[in-house]
Design a protein that fits this description.
This protein has 12 helices and 7 strands. It has helices spanning about 10-15, 55-65, 75-80, 85-90, 105-115, 120-130, 150-155, 170-180, 195-200, 210-220, 230-240, 250-270, and strands at about 5-10, 25, 30-35, 40-45, 50-55, 135, 145. The structure holds a DNA duplex.
DNA sequence: GCTCAGGCAGGCT
DNA sequence: AGCCTGCCTGAG
């Protein structure tokens, strides 16, 4: 039995190709196929939203939460309109959602992302899953889970050599060991403040300000996080050298995503 | 050969 | 607390 659900105002390209996630594949028919935890989803863009196709209702609940269906983005965009640049960026990218991803996968993914480019990040993560994850479906050429911390913690740097992740391998292992042995309890971060969560994540080798902010925003939905990469640094220097606008409020992370997309679109076009 | 890619650790002042 | 510098790897 297949169930279909529709979410409004979700733009798949804006959301799934924005660099907050790395495991969605675009199909020839334009739909996207993804996996999170042990949930597999095919999702298609329709005129005024996105259409989810799932095989049971538990999956539907999972994915609606993953796509952050509860947050009122229209209200956030309205709030952002007090600033000219941010308002423009937000309206142009109004289909962006800040995903609620699996913490461990998000942590490892952004550790891998450092000093790296998106195609390579994607390749390393898919090799990680195909080598050490579990093949839970034969659909779409095979779907692999993201390996859990215990599995990775048992591996050696040599085992991870096929990933070609370079110097990041020891960071991946440090994070996995700390999560597997309980030094880091990822679930506890849901209840932490932004500052506490950040300090806690930074006790992992290979996790600095940027990686911690990405994990806090893209897994825990802590919208106070404002991941600052080279692109954002440039736009802040150009438009907000006197400080971020007041209207960002508690949603600086959402603002960051709008600005990132806006800036990237308008500079790559030149 | 070189630079750059959504940074970070380690060492220095 | 703020500045360097090196770093695996692969594409341009």
């Amino acid at each position: 039995m297949e169930y279909h659900y529709k979410t409004r105002c979700l733009d798949l390209k804006q959301t799934l190709e924005s660099g907050q996630c790395f495991r969605w594949r675009k199909q020839d028919d334009g739909s996207y196929v993804g996996i999170a935890g042990s949930h597999v989803l095919k999702i298609s863009q329709v005129r005024d939203g996105a259409l989810l196709t799932v095989s049971n209702k538990e999956d539907a609940d999972y994915w609606l939460k993953y796509f952050d269906s509860e947050t009122d983005y229209e209200a956030v965009i309205k709030q952002f309109s007090a600033d000219k640049t941010l308002g423009e960026a937000a309206r142009e990218n109004s289909g962006i959602r800040i995903l609620r991803q699996e913490p461990f996968e998000t942590l490892i993914s952004f550790i891998i992302s450092q000093n790296n480019n998106i195609p390579r990040i994607t390749g390393i993560i898919s090799r990680l899953c195909e080598n050490f994850g579990e093949r839970i479906s034969d659909e779409y050429g095979g779907m692999w889970t993201f390996p859990d911390a215990g599995r990775l913690a048992a591996l050696s740097p040599e085992d991870l050599a096929p990933l070609r992740a370079g110097f990041r391998v020891r960071y991946i292992l440090d994070a996995s060991v700390k999560v597997a042995d309980g030094t880091i309890d990822l679930d506890s971060i849901y209840d932490m403040s932004y500052d506490d969560g950040k300090a806690y994540l930074k006790t992992i080798t290979g996790v600095g300000d940027k990686v911690a902010d990405c994990v806090l925003l893209f897994a825990y939905h802590k919208t106070s996080a404002f991941p600052t990469d080279v692109w954002i640094k440039r736009i802040v220097a150009e438009y907000y050298s006197d400080g971020l606008p007041e209207c960002m409020g508690e949603y600086k992370g959402i603002a960051q995503q709008y600005l990132f997309e806006y800036f990237r679109k308008h500079s790559s076009a030149t």
